[in-house]
Amino acid sequence: MKVLIINGPNLNLLGTREPEIYGTVSMEDHLDALRSGFPAFELDYYQSNIEGEIINYLQKDDFDAVIINPGAFTHYSYAIADCLKNINKPKVEVHISNIYKREEFRQKSVTAANTDAVLSGFGMEGYRLAILSLK
To answer: What is the pLDDT of residue 14?
Structure first.
């Protein structure tokens, strides 16, 4: 199964960005661990700080399932929400922090309604849990 893991803005800084919230592990290191732990899955990764690039990548439609952490786009990107709505494959939204314990504006996801599940607050472990949910 080919799984697209897609991260939104500022998640290219994982490992150094606000380590008290996001931890000290880079996404590249975490991907290495995920690939080792799930050899039966082909894990494709894409990150962009640009909304349209995320939509273009999703519209390639060359995957069997999506794990998406839209980052700040979670809270206001109706364009990404519409794109997800048109993908008829398993979709899991992941948030490293518990968005419901953060600032009020971060507590609403406009993208979640167009996914099958949401994992929030499990740290980087959320990506592994999302993959497990696809088995």
So the answer is: 86
Q: Catalytic: which of 22, 30, 57, 127? A: 22
Q: Is 22 a catalytic residue?
A: yes
Average pLDDT, the chain: 94
Count CB-CB contacts under 10 A for residue 22: 19
Instruction: Report d(CA 101, CA 66) in Å as an integer.
Output: 25
Q: What is the DSSP letter of 71?
A: G
Report the relative pairing of strands 65-69 and 42-47 from DSSP bridges: unpaired
Q: Which of 78, 95, 100, 127 is catalytic?
A: 95
The verdict on whether 30 is a catalytic residue reads: no
The Cα angle at residue 6 between residues 93 and 108, in degrees rounded to 5? 35
Q: Kindly tell me if the per-residue pLDDT of 36 is higher than 90.
A: yes
